[in-house]
Write a structure and sequence with these properties.
The protein has nine helices and six strands; from the N terminus they run αβαββααββαααβαα. The protein is mainly alpha-helical. It has one domain.
């Protein structure tokens, strides 16, 4: 699959622009992005960011987006638009991301993608960090052993469709292959 940093950045910018003080806890932003990517898969059999899903201790993540969160000095569009502020100990805010520079979202996201992000924000944007983590812990494709072992395991698209979204196994396989085909063609 082909990760699209510009679309991931635009998605993160969208959510940060909605948030008070244009800042979100890192877990909150990641969960909103996972929910949005998953909803897009359900509705359109496609990915917005092209990021791979993975199971981790606090639920599913988008692997390449997590890499951007963790970069010390991110470059590219992400680095120009989004800043990471690490937790500095007791009495300080937890890890969070802040909007450094705005972005013309319509240059990176379709009208349908923007409407989808808006619906995700309206449904989930007011929820607290651990509530969102709990919601994503209910996603059947998430490997619960990652919580106890503090490990990471890939989640394949077929499992998102079959286990997570309830498609029959053969339909889930077809939809996953369709995404993989179009991702390969786009690369």
């Amino acid at each position: 699959m082909m990760f699209r940093e510009d679309k991931a950045t635009a998605m993160a910018v969208f959510f940060l622009k909605q948030a008070p003080d244009q800042r979100l806890d890192d877990l909150v932003l990641m969960k909103l992005m996972v929910i949005a990517e998953r909803k897009n898969m359900a509705m359109h059999t496609s990915l917005i960011t092209g990021a791979r899903f993975a199971s981790m201790q606090n639920g599913p993540v988008l692997s390449e987006v997590l890499d951007l969160f963790r970069e010390q000095k991110p470059t590219g569009l992400w680095g120009r638009c989004i800043g990471y502020v690490p937790h500095k100990g007791r009495g300080t805010p937890s890890n969070h991301l802040v909007l450094k520079n705005d972005l013309d979202l319509s240059q990176h996201l379709s009208e349908h993608e923007l409407k989808l992000l808006e619906s995700v924000w309206h449904e989930f944007g007011h929820k607290r960090k651990w509530t969102l983590v709990g919601i994503t812990h209910e996603f059947p494709e998430w490997d619960r052993t990652c919580q106890a072992t503090k490990s990471s395991r890939p989640i394949n698209l077929e499992d998102v469709f079959h286990l997570g979204l309830g498609d029959p196994a053969d339909r889930a396989r077809e939809r996953a292959q369709e995404i993989e085909y179009f991702e390969e063609v786009a690369a």
